[in-house]
Amino acid sequence: MITKRIIPCLDVRDGQVVKGVNFEGLRTLTSPVEMARFYSANGADELVFYDITASSDGRKLFTDILCETARNVFIPLTVGGGINTVADFERVLGCGADKVSVNSGAIRNPSLINEAARIYGDQCVVLSVDVKRVDGVFRIFAKGGRENTGMEAIQWIKECVDRGAGEIVVNSIDTDGVKQGFDLEMLQKVCDVVSVPVIASGGAGKIDDFITLFKALPKVDAGLAASIFHFGEVKITDLKAEMNKNGIPTRMGV
Amino acid sequence: MIAIIDYGVGNLFSLRSSFAAIGADVIVTRDETEIRKADRIILPGVGAFEDAAKKLKELRLDTLLKEEVKKGKPLMGICLGMQMLFEKSFEYGEHEGLGLLKGSVQPIKDRIPADLKVPHMGWNALKFHGKKHPLFRYITEGDCVYFVHSYAAVSCEDSLIASAEYGASLTAAVARGNVMGCQFHPEKSGNVGLNILKAFCEMEGGAVC
Q: Residues of A with CB below 8 A from B125's CB?
């Protein structure tokens, strides 16, 4: 059986991981390449790199760093941030990325998904959404979660899958940063309507949150988190040992 | 020297990097002289079978590969490159492969329960078949490797060396003499994948299949 994936997410700006990382209290790591190597050696099943640079200089630097990472790390890499055109797909895939994640770029131009899926295949196109409850309705937020688009989330996700998105990252703004567990209600709603892999994001604070996620929602394929891995609050090796103990299909070893 | 065949199918950045990481000398090429000079050959590939088979033929690499295999040179196909080793594929019609191995390539969806997703994508465990193959000398049964595919080889019992369980037993790796293939991506399978590539680099040629 396919194993459940654990995915650390690295936000990269000006060539550095935002919020440097303090592993084991030894030293602060901010190099994306070094962090990627560390995670790969410690059992991460996949890595997500988000480019949060605004400038074109920053973009060039991000692309160079991505290449350097792919030269050194041999697990699947998903790249997001600033993906607005097929040329952006080409740029990051040429550096060894396996999947490309679209968010605001798809909101502005939904046919980007069709176009990219036709050229690179559905499995290469990941839809990432930032979702928040507004008056009891799940709404899509843009610009890093700052702007309510007014779009109904479940409908939008369905449309994107129909257009060719091969995987969905569901980030709940409501649970993000709260560290009280993933947004099971929201994830359940998404799992009910799509048949492509769903990655849960936002809310993980401890190992148990992942165990609860995979037990409550067997259709969720992966759990994504950033700071709890970066700050060592959850060690991936411990997390995977616990998943394995709980009978959740887990890739042990590296 | 290992020749990674460049026939315009898929991105070879990671494959090249993974060989570099284990200290192997590689060249990405479609040049006949370079390929003939190489000690071993990698046939990569992603995308559609028909398109890939056509490109191999257009570049006259099909004949070249068959000749080099006959001489005993180790050849490993990866993903679509592995599927190309078989007699034919039923991906959108019926298409002829290199015929270096017995068997054909069929859609996965016809063989697995409807609730399982296609493509078969992610990390899955290897189950070995027959005597443990030298390609696996540095890994153990149950180790996970990374798959992304919607088609798989069938009727290839005489070359099957590993499978993965996904509602059905899917062909994961094959070998017969100096012809080998992995359905999964060793270049994306962490240390396990690198160890398979390392074992391939150490395989002796000569045994004609």
A: 1, 3
Residue-wise DSSP of B18-87? HHHHTT--EEEE--HHHHHH-SEEEE---S-HHHHHHHHHHTTHHHHHHHHHHTT--EEEETHHHHTTSS
- Domain B2-202 belongs in CATH node 3.40.50.880: yes
Q: Does A37 touch chain B (CB under 8 A)?
A: no
Domains of chain B, by residue range, sit at 2-202
B185 is catalytic: yes
Give per-residue pLDDT as tens, A41-88: 999 999 999 998 877 788 889 999 999 999 999 999 999 999 999 999
Using a CB-CB distance cutoff of 8 angstroms, which residues of chain B are in contact with residue A1?
Answer: 124-125, 165-166
Q: Per-residue pLDDT tens for B45-89? A: 888 899 999 999 999 999 999 999 999 999 999 999 999 999 999
Mutate which of B92, B112, B144, B196 to test chain A, going by most A C-beta atoms within 10 A? B144
**Class of the domain covering A5-245:** alpha beta
Q: Does B48 touch chain A (CB under 8 A)?
A: no
The structural domains of chain A, with segments of one domain joined by +, span: 5-245
